[in-house]
Amino acid sequence: MLKEGRREEATKIRKQHPEWKYAKVLNKYSTILKTYSNMIDRIIKSKTLSTEEKRKRIKELEKKRVEAARRANKFMKKYQQK
Questions:
Q1: Cα(70)–Cα(35) distance, rounded to whole angstroms?
Q2: pTM of the model
Q3: 57, 41 in Cβ contact below 8 A?
Q4: pLDDT for res 78
Q5: Are 19 and 79 in contact (CB under 8 A)?
Q6: Residues 6 or more apart whose Cβ sits within 8 Å of residue 2
Q7: Would you say residue 2 has pLDDT above 90?
Q8: C-alpha dihedral over 59, 60, 65, 70, to 10 degrees?
Q9: Which of 17, 72, 78, 79 is deepest in the core (most CB within 10 A)?
Q10: Taking a C-beta distance cutoff of 8 angstroms, is the pair 32, 4 a contact?
Q11: Sign of CA dihedral 24, 35, 68, 70
Q12: What does the alpha-carbon distance between residue 8 and residue 15 come to, in Å, rounded to a whole number?
């Protein structure tokens, strides 16, 4: 809308939906979590890694994924308090 020169309409929509200003951040977290899931899937499908190596790598990625999810939840809690 802004690119099309409809600034007033964009401002009106932004006021009606203040939560949209957090969409980019939440989309970032969503992408991060999806990336971790894809990496885990690739490890599981790997024919070259041993079972122990797969477990080790998956465990590391799971920790990182949980940390990212906690950061996203913390962000949402902070937003909900406003």
A1: 16
A2: 0.71
A3: no
A4: 81
A5: yes
A6: 10
A7: no
A8: 100
A9: 72
A10: no
A11: positive
A12: 11
